Amino acid sequence: MQDQTFSRLGFCVTLASWVAISCAPAESDSNNDGGGGGGGATATGSVSSASVSSASVSSGSGSGVSTSSGTTAAGTGGDNSGGSGGAEPTGSGGAGTGGWPEGAIPMGNAPVPSAGCGKATTLTTKEYTISSSGQNRVYYVDMPRNYDMNKPYRLFYTSHWIGSRWQDVEGQDFYFLKPQMEADGEQAIFVAPSSDGATWQEKDHALFDDIMAFMNENVCYDTTRVFATGFSFGGMITYSLSTNHQAEIRAAVGIAPANYNIWLPEKTRKPIAWMHTTGMSDGTCPWVNNEAQKRGAKFIALEKAEDNGCTIPDNIPTSNGAYSCYDFQDCDPEHPTRVCTFGGGHTNIDGNPNWIPIESWKFFKQF
């Protein structure tokens, strides 16, 4: 794993450059965010593992294919009789007689290969350019070693913080997820786009769609295991995508996100597996910015818990010391919902070892 002392220094330089820009108070600026995180509290804590029950799917009488935003997923038969075919996402694909109920892909489901599976690819680990919304946009693809065109890999869509580029995310091994996976003997495809300027905007939803449509045709990945994550403004675009891309994104982790000063689409309020982290001393993307307006990370947690059918507690347990993760109870089995808080500031590096990628990978790998 990358030396954390170096990472903290890089974050502090970034933060100093953007100290006047905050996602907290700026009422008039819809594209503000904090810079890279500095070091937070160093104490580590323990967390109980998420209690997620498996959902069984009865065998159906056929398979179908459905397409949404350029992503094709094959259905395997299920308990929604007479379905239009295919796992969520639902779309205008071929007809079928079975499939999973919308948004209810069971935990531990068999992989659903992308259209690129079984075909040789020309993609290698490097930067690419794509035309999106009339612009040439750049993004980086990190391919698995000894890539197997017949293996549907997990795919991670990783978004950078304000004022940075894909190089900063790649330099952190994709929020330190890559070494966590490799320690478990796993590999994945990582995609890291660059924003058009300092912040993420409305057109970056189209960028996600365009990149994923290209990836679908050109690499082999599991269409039911596309994951999204990002820090600070990257956490904010991750949250923004999660509000209307539940069909394409299986689970998302927002690291120090906010639910304002970012463009938000009309929310579908469909379920999506969700986790996020917040330092209780974070003055950039705070736990609560405005209670009456429901601005702050607390309200992301409550929104996702409601969308995912969870029981809403009177108060979400939080920690001002060592990190603690709260798993909402009674959520849809397919949509675990978790929030982790700690006595630190605006950062994606806390503790030694850094618990944030450890908990993020634990959350992602359960699917």
Unreliable residue runs: 1-22, 24-98
**Sheet with the most strands: spatial strand order:** 3-4-6-5-7-8-9-11-10
Average pLDDT for all residues: 81
Q: Count the beta strands.
A: 11
Q: What order do the helices and strands follow?
A: HEEEEEHHEHEHEEHEEH
Task: Describe the main β-sheet briefly.
Answer: 9 strands, mixed
Given the helix and strand composition, which structural class is it? alpha/beta
In short:
Helices cover 22% and strands 19% of the residues. The chain has 7 helices and 11 strands.
What features would you describe in this structure?
- The protein has 367 residues and is of the alpha/beta class.
- The protein is built from 7 helices and 11 strands.
- A 9-stranded mixed sheet has the order 3-4-6-5-7-8-9-11-10, with helices on both faces. A two-stranded antiparallel ribbon has the order 1-2.
- Helix 3 packs across helix 7.
- The N terminus is likely disordered.
Outline the fold blueprint:
Layout (H helix, E strand, L loop, with lengths): L3 H14 L47 E4 L2 E4 L51 E7 L2 E8 L10 E7 L6 H6 L1 H11 L4 E6 L9 H16 L2 E11 L1 H10 L8 E5 L17 E7 L17 H11 L16 E4 L9 E6 L12 H11 L2
Parallel strand pairs: 5-6, 5-7, 7-8, 8-9, 9-11
Antiparallel strand pairs: 1-2, 3-4, 4-6, 10-11
